[in-house]
Specification:
27% strand; 7 strands; 156 residues; alpha+beta; 4 helices; seven-stranded mixed β-sheet
């Protein structure tokens, strides 16, 4: 599949804020409110569309890709933090590899030599498997400051 990357717009932010993930993946759903739209439009987010210009997902970087932790873990500045979200209807359909590869390529165009870091819920075996296929490895486990959920910090 051929993907394109473009800037986040209000229209895309509105659509993404309405995405609802099922079961335990619900932690990845956004709340539909002005604060969510503001976050998505803060300049850290980009969108990914397919060849028919349909929204596939989004990527974010920097502070927007981090979580608050209980463990006094501090995200060092020597790595590029990335985050991502795929349209709920497309998750688990084998599209993640090319989708993430496209995002990584775009996010690292300006700084190809900087190591990457992402944060993923420990229960999300599907995503962890994908990240490992793309060369990420688990660096440490942290606890989310608000939810108490365990997350892996993965680096590449």
């Amino acid at each position: 599949m051929i993907y394109s990357i473009s800037r986040m717009t209000h229209k895309y932010a509105l659509k993404i804020s309405q995405w609802t993930y099922q079961n335990e993946y619900g932690i990845y759903s956004f709340e539909q409110n002005a604060e969510t739209i503001e976050e998505l439009l803060n300049g850290d987010y980009i969108v990914c569309t397919d060849q028919n210009n349909k929204l596939v997902g989004y990527f974010c970087q920097g502070k927007s890709a981090r979580i608050p932790t209980k463990d006094c873990f501090s995200y060092s500045k020597d790595k590029l933090d990335i985050g991502l979200g795929m349209h709920p209807e497309l998750c688990g359909k084998g599209m993640g590899y090319d989708f993430l590869l496209c995002g990584i390529k775009h996010l690292t165009e300006q700084t190809p030599d900087i190591p990457l870091r992402l944060t993923v819920a420990c229960f999300n075996k599907r995503a962890i498997s994908l990240y490992k296929k793309l060369g990420f490895s688990i660096e440490r486990t942290v606890t989310h400051k608000i939810s108490g959920e365990a997350y892996y910090i993965m680096t590449k």
